Structure formats: C-alpha cells, structure tokens
C-alpha cells in the first residue's frame, strides 16, 4: 500500500516538472504564457506582471529553472527510494519536499504581498509542492521521525552537549528535569514532541508480568527521584520508567559532589545516596498523576548518618512498601534496590541470612504488584548465584535487574586520570556494561523460566540494548547514554531495534530474548 502512495508522489513530482519546464521554456523563448483565469479575475491574475518582475530571477537564474531542477531531483530521489527502499533516499525525499514547500511559501508571498498579482502556473507549482510536502509528512511518519531523531542527535552531540558539559552537572540535571516537568504539563507540547520523537511499532510491544510495555526501553531509577518526568517521558519515546529510589524518610543527598562527568570513560560519577523526598511526599505527588506508560517505584532503605541496625533497616524498607501499597498511586511495579553503594553505615542485604530476612518481611505484605530486585555487579558469580537462589524462593519477586554502579576504580574501562578527580562516588555508563552483560547471561541460563530480567548499564546505542536482549533481558534501562547522546537516543534505539530484528529475520522483539545465551 505504501509503495502505491509513493508512486502518487512521484506522479505529482512529474507534474511539477511539466509545469516548471513549461515556464522555463517560455522564459528562454521570451514569451509570456496566457493566464486562462484572466477573464474571471483580471484584477488579481497577471502572469506577465509576475514573470517579468525582478523577483522572477535569483542571481540571474530564472525561478522557473530552479523549480525545474527541484522537481527533477525530487522525482529522481523518489524513484530511487521506491526501487531501493533505503533510508538515505527517503530522508532526501523529506528534505527536498520540505525545501520545496518553504520556497513556495516565499514565492506565494512575493506574488500576493509584493507584486500584487498571481501567475496561474506559479501558483499551480506551489500547490503541487504543498501537496507533496503534506502527503510526505503524513505518509512517511517513521522516516520523518527518524530524520528528526538523527538531526537532533547530531545537534545535541556536536553543539548542545559541549555547552552543557561546561556547567556543573547537578545544575544541568535540575534544570533539565524542571524543563521536562514544565513541558509535561502542556498536552500540545507533549503531542508535538510525540510527533517527532516517539517510535511506535507492534514488533516492540510486550506484555510482561501482566504489564503492557509499548517498547523495551525504560528510564532507570536514579534520574527522576522527585517524580517530575512521568508525564513527558512517553512523548520522548520511553516505554516505561522507574522513579526514585524512594525511601521511607526523605534524604537531601550526600555531601557534594553528587555528580561528575568522565567523558573519556563514557561514564558519570554518582554520589546521590538515595536523594529523594521520602515515601510520604512522593506518594502524595504520584497520587495526583495519571500514567500513560508503566511507572515503577524503586524502594530502598533510608540513608543518613544516623546509624541503623539490620533489623531497623528491614523495618524501614517495609514501611515504605506499606505506604505505597495503601496509597492510591497508579504505579505498575516495584524495584527493591539492595545494591546502592553510596549509603552510610555497614548495612548489607547481600549475605544470605540478611537477604532472606528482608524478603521474608516484605513477603508478609502480600504485595499486589510485581517486584524486581536491583542487583549489584561487583559480586562474584558464586555470590550472585547464591543471591539468585534465595530470591527465586520468594514467589512475589518476578525478576531481577542487572545492575548497579561500577565500584572497581581500577576497572580497565575507566580512565585513571578521570577517576582521580573524584574521591567519592561510583561510576555508571560504559564501565558497568561488561559485567552487567555477564550477569544477564548467567541469570538467564540459570533462571530463564523463573525470572524476568531487566538489563541496565552502558546502553549508548540500539546495538548495546539489543546485545542485552539477546543475552536474556526482556527490558532495558538507561540514564548515562541519554546524557551523552541526547534525548533522541530513546527513539533512535527503538527505531534501530526494528532494523536489527529485520536483519536477524525476527518478527518480534520477544524472539530475540536469550538467543545468545
């Protein structure tokens, strides 16, 4: 069906060639075509006045000739696009159609606003351009979005990022979150962003743990810890989001610096330590909101310099779960974050006895939504296996997330000189990727029928996300990749996942899960 639509565009382009070609011939033949509507609109229609005006030339070149060249290029590119079906030619069609439409707006302004007369043939050319542009924008939705995503990504990476990276990262984060929250309050802005960034395709949709995900790409916990972005993220293209991590009591964050950049390592230094508004205030904010996509709540123990016992820590986590379970918040799932490395005190949920104690107490709540456990990446395979074995014994846990920050400051993926700049915190992004992928593969091999796996860490492209999926992840999460690549990365990943599925001969994203494990 789409092929026939593009053939219609090609026919329109050929009509434009005929119209512009006739005007070009008349120009060089020193003749003025008769406007057949003169007898009806003599005050407004005068081809001679338009074609003899100084505005009919640009640098001595007739506009008619430029129009002929434009339509000829457009027709040629359309033909190549139809034959090859390659993105490059479709992008060129969009650019050419857009350029023609804008030029036609200017030329119509000259006729009506400056010359005060209309030329039938010039107006017909403008009409053809407008029709081609309108049809191209409406019919080439995926191509339009892809072109905008790639252009916006280029602008971000080569211009905007350079400016942002001159400013304190915490200041940039707060400013961008505030802007995102503001944009999310206006439906018109959300629709406009959706029209250019959101990629929707049934091949990416999944029903996981009785939750519908429009695509597998989510925002990880640690970014939207004040619940400010839930309304705008679906428009950017995210398939889901985890807010938080949220704790029973509020926490203002660790001593600065809380964020830092490691550009050579493609990483961020993170030292927030569960900065959040607390379960009560977060619950009040969320209870007023409607969510277009699945939104989860990450829950951890309250941080602070006041020492807690192991038992008190468990009780603190349980109280946070209890608040949300009794609330009217319309969230879809929970994450239990047992792996944050930036907390005060010596409390740990990693030892078998401690992990069992925590999960046993949470299980007593009979939680109504799926729970996923956020896992560490610094533990050995043996230690992770032991943790997975214990987690698997609790039926309310539906899956695991691999994983959290890189704690090894000597990891070869980290640039030593960049690491020296930060005396506190641990590292996100590419330094987490290798171990995250290893643990996804390990977990899938051992528990593919028991756990839903969410892959997190080092996703900067569709290939990175697809690798985690092929290793066993049903969903993926990111933050750092978006900081380095721009918000268009989400749409780009979803767009290119479709290409990767096609390359591998797969009809749906679920068919790729675990193929490399």
Describe this structure in words.
By secondary structure, the chain is of the alpha/beta class. It has two domains: 2-139, VKOR domain (de novo design (two linked rop proteins)); 169-428 and 489-512, Aldolase class I (TIM Barrel), CATH 3.20.20. It has 18 helices and 15 strands. It has an eight-stranded parallel β-barrel, surrounded by four helices. Helix 16 (462-471) links the parallel strand 14 and strand 15. The mean pLDDT is 91.
For this structure, the CATH topology of the largest domain is: TIM Barrel
Number of domains: 2
Q: What top-tier CATH class of the largest domain fits best?
A: Alpha Beta
Provide the residue-averaged pLDDT.
Answer: 91
Uncertain segments of ≥5 residues (pLDDT<50)?
none
Largest sheet: 8 strands, parallel, barrel
Strand content: 5-15%
Number of helices: 18
Do you know the CATH architecture of the largest domain?
Answer: Alpha-Beta Barrel
User: How far apart are the first and last residues' alpha carbons, in Å?
Assistant: 39 Å
Number of strands: 15
Gyration radius, to the nearest Å?
Answer: 29 Å
Helix content: 40-55%
Identify the CATH homologous superfamily of the largest domain. Answer: Aldolase class I
By secondary-structure content and strand pairing, the structural class works out as: alpha/beta
Overall morphology: elongated
């Amino acid at each position: 069906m789409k092929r026939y639509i593009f053939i219609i565009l090609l026919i329109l382009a050929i009509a434009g060639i005929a119209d512009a070609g006739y005007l070009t011939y008349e120009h060089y033949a020193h003749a003025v075509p008769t406007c057949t509507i003169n007898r009806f609109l003599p005050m407004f229609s005068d081809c001679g006045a338009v074609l003899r005006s100084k505005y009919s030339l640009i640098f001595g070149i007739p506009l008619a000739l430029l129009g002929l060249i434009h339509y000829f290029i457009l027709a040629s590119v359309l033909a190549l696009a139809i034959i090859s079906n390659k993105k490059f030619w479709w992008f060129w069609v969009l650019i050419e159609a857009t350029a023609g439409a804008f030029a036609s707006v200017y030329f119509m302004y000259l006729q009506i606003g400056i010359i005060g007369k209309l030329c039938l043939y010039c107006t017909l050319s403008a009409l053809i351009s407008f029709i081609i542009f309108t049809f191209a924008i409406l019919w080439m939705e995926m191509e339009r979005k892809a072109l905008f995503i790639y252009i916006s990504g280029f602008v971000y990476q080569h211009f905007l990022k350079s400016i942002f990276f001159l400013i304190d990262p915490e200041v940039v984060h707060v400013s961008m979150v505030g802007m995102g929250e503001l944009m999310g309050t206006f439906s018109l802005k959300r629709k406009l962003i959706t029209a250019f960034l959101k990629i929707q395709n049934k091949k990416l949709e999944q029903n996981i743990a009785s939750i519908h995900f429009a695509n597998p790409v989510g925002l990880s916990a640690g970014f939207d810890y004040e619940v400010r972005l839930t309304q705008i993220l679906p428009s950017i293209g995210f398939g889901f989001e985890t807010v938080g991590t949220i704790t029973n009591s509020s926490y203002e964050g660790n001593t600065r610096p809380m964020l830092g950049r490691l550009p050579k390592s493609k990483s961020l230094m993170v030292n927030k330590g569960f900065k959040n508004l607390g379960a009560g205030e977060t619950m009040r904010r969320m209870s007023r909101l409607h969510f277009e996509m699945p939104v989860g709540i990450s829950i951890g123990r309250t941080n602070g310099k006041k020492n807690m016992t192991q038992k008190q820590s468990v009780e603190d986590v349980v109280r946070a779960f209890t608040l949300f379970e009794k609330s009217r918040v319309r969230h879809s799932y929970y994450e239990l974050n047992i792996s944050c490395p930036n907390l005060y005190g010596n409390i740990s949920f990693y030892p078998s006895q401690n992990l069992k104690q925590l999960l046993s107490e949470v299980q007593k709540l009979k939680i109504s939504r799926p729970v996923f456990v956020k896992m560490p990446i610094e533990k050995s395979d043996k230690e992770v296996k032991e943790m997975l074995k214990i987690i698997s014994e609790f039926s309310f846990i539906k899956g695991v997330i691999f994983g959290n920050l890189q704690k090894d400051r000597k990891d070869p993926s980290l640039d030593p000189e960049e690491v020296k700049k930060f005396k506190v915190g641990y590292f996100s992004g590419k330094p987490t990727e290798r171990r995250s992928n290893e643990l996804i593969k390990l977990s899938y091999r051992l528990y593919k029928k028991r756990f839903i796996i969410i892959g997190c860490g080092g996703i900067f492209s569709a290939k990175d996300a697809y690798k985690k999926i092929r290793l066993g992840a049903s969903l993926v999460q990111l933050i750092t990749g978006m900081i380095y690549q721009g918000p268009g990365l989400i749409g780009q990943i979803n767009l290119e996942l479709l290409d990767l599925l096609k390359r591998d001969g797969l009809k749906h994203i679920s068919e790729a899960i675990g193929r490399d494990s």
